[in-house]
Amino acid sequence: MVLSTPACAKNTNDVMRKWWDYMADIMQTALDHTPTQFALEPVFHLNLLNRSAHHD
After folding, report:
1. In this structure, how many other beta carbons lie within 10 angstroms of the beta carbon of residue 20?
2. What is the value of pTM for the model shown?
3. Contact 30, 37 (CB under 8 A)
4. Is 2 helix (H, G, I), strand (E, B) or coil?
């Protein structure tokens, strides 16, 4: 599922814009060459333990 173009695309600097234009032929982009974003499916979940509560 394609989400949208990056929020930073509205405030890009010249270096980033040139990189996107340069890479546009080998990555998925919108018509203005901003990279497309895809939702990532979680592959694991990490539970953090409260170390101060576990004194042995």
Report:
1. 20
2. 0.48
3. no
4. strand
Residue 41 lies in a domain: yes
Q: How many domains does the chain have?
A: 1
Q: What average pLDDT does range 46-56 have in this prediction?
A: 68
| Span 8-24, average pLDDT | 82
In which domain, by residue range, is 30 found? 7-53
Q: Could you count the other beta carbons within 10 Å of the beta carbon of residue 14?
A: 7
**What is the DSSP annotation of 18-38?**
HHHHHHTTTS-B-TTSPBP-B
Distance CA 18, CA 15 (A): 5
CB < 8 Å & 24+ apart, contacts of 6-15: 6/34, 6/35, 6/37, 9/34
